[in-house]
């Protein structure tokens, strides 16, 4: 019995020593090589809505001494296209990947396979429509809460009485976790108010269908659930093609702010995209620095901005990050 106990203690000591040696070797390798490289893959990467996000990435890269590269993309990527880009980046030396997951049923499994090779951090939303179904770490705002905030702002403007008012919902996609939870939050906020959802449109609004909205039935309010949709609704409002509907939405670009400032949008809920970038890269850097670190989910804040508070001291930092 004593011999078995001694053998057990000896094995434990050997394993502990091996872990220490492994950690030392990995540290030596890290100190003797170039900076860690992180590749970032987002949809339509040159779009204005990513300015604050990319500024956050750059600031975190400087702070953590990381080599960061945003892959040039155009339009919406499929899971297969994202896979090809990720594989190319890994072949070119990427030590980790930050990715905005494609709204595709195959994305989750594809990214889990990638995670077996390098650390993967999701940015903006999970790869599954149900957040709890995703096993991958994500840095994102609380999408449900933003949708609810949008409903609350609408109700404030009418002292809670919007019975019989009609609503049109505009979203770039219905297939992402972000879009699904924003819509759920908004609808929950309108529960028992007597408002009527007249239509929901899920479209990226390319040039070929730019006139689609003006042929929808007239509504009192258009609710835009993402930056692209907000800009589309703002453009239609400016052209007087929304039949007098008021626009409330979620957006994070200087163009979205323009429509708020000029009165073509009533309210803007702005996710903190700077911190989506900063925290996603910071968490990824932790994983590269510490082999035993498990990346955690990060939730960032959001800000409600009205035209009369647009240039308040509290909102200056938000506007600054959008313009970088």
From TrEMBL:
Pfam families assigned: Peripla_BP_4
Keywords: Membrane, Signal, Transmembrane, Transmembrane helix
Domain annotation Periplasmic binding protein: ranges: 39-282
Places the protein is found: Cell envelope
SUPFAM superfamilies: Periplasmic binding protein-like I
Chain segments annotated as transmembrane: 7-27
Keyword Transmembrane annotated: yes
Source domain of life: Bacteria
Family the UniProt entry places it in: Belongs to the bacterial solute-binding protein 2 family.
Name of the molecule in the record: Substrate-binding domain-containing protein
Organism: Blautia caccae
